């Protein structure tokens, strides 16, 4: 089925805009791919170093140039629940490769930090920059040029985007992303949110809060709410970089292991040594990028991807803009209700039909490009399935996704959407550009006009809240939180506080050049304001008491001050030196100096 005219129009303008950068990119990866297996040109000393630690069979195979060799890029560490399951994956992959006559080696490890651990802490100021560090770390591993394809083991917020940037930088290599899956369901997300808000109000103690958090985050796997980590998995599948059905299968299960082995065998079959050569740089084209954006909207996904998708696309020579993302939101129905956009978690989403059901619904309505190239090689319709184990418990088999949702309150059809649009849109006005996610905001809360209250740190807002200074209508302007200022930390510490004030009947909202991420919730938040305050953006000229109008329906963000007065004001210049030292921040000064705007992906490349 052909894509909807409106989807085609956005795709065409991305293609036209990107031609000056996409065409040289394609020329580079085609030239690199034409060189063939690099191992055959390595010196004997080079090659001996490359397989010195391997066993006899692998050494024998690697000494020639006809055995495909996989490079494993892993984000394993055993502190973080989402990445701990990867401890077992390299041996699974090595053995699966040997079984089909190939080899596999861990090419490099990349850092994996958890925003859940660093939330509201100093370490969060390294979080966004870790994406580009991950891309560079993966590049170091792949630079040995020993590999015919790569498999990428990553799950969470900045890890998958960083790996995707690396995969596209090495776009001549086939790439398959292998997730670890979500943890099993624990304390319901709405109950966790309720306890957090009670704690913010001083109605429960730390012991009760820690007990609730521990029941929510209780075992191996990804957090079960639909934040950036699970949005990542959705994106990799709908963009054709997973094997079909791989996204949301729990860790340490027979099906998860079978999917990992299958991904290994598939990666070996699509190298330049065979007849199905499928380089990653051809999988991720303009159509795949549009499919990713549509999937983000249809599931109510993370606002972080208004930056990450822009940066991923740029690594493939594709110029994606916030206007493109916003326009695609207008034509994409919201088909999933997963917390914070609903009460369900990703396990409920999977049980209701998961990615297979979602992809089929979108394909049948012309909202996705079906005729794309994927790592699976069969167009996107092949992803409209559920993954199951065959009777022998070993081989993965496929069957059609159910025609009916297992739970229409979690996953619905295109003719009965939860909303006619994706709820993620761009705001424009005299403060520049910003992003808002309204899918979890009640319609009556989406327009706020109130006086500004200025903060230069999220902790300042907490102090004001505790002092009882915020029991009124206001718009919190939390500025100097952009990438140039302090690395653009997430500001989730604000969510319970502003939620309390909203529940008391006040009109409240947030305007910030910082981030709120995939857990953006019920309070309207204009985030990623660009230009940021550190760059002298208009947000730096707002004063306490200025009236601001945030309209999430029409897509406008205005400070109600005449242009001449606003232009004549001197931008605020707070002392930011405290953001420059401690917990490694010294090492990232070059990143803060070099980083681009949020609208351009907040990238140092």
What does this structure look like?
There is one protein chain. The chain has 605 residues and is an alpha/beta fold. It folds into two domains: 5-35 and 68-184 and 219-396, no CATH class; 424-600, IlvD/EDD C-terminal domain-like (Glucose Oxidase, domain 1). It is built from 22 helices and 14 strands. The strands form three sheets. It has an eight-stranded mixed sheet. The protein has a four-stranded parallel sheet with strand order 2-1-3-4, sandwiched between helices. A hairpin with a 2-residue loop joins strand 7 and strand 8. Helix 4 crosses helix 11, helix 6 packs parallel to helix 7 and helix 10 crosses helix 13 (286-299). The radius of gyration is 24 Å and the shape is globular. The two termini are 37 Å apart. It comes from Jiella flava. One of its GO terms (cellular component) is cytosol. Residues 68-381 form the Dihydroxy-acid/6-phosphogluconate dehydratase N-terminal domain. InterPro entries: 6-phosphgluc_deHydtase, Dihydro-acid_dehy_C, DiOHA_6PGluconate_deHydtase_CS, ILV_EDD_C, ILV_EDD_N, IlvD/EDD_N. Belongs to the IlvD/Edd family.
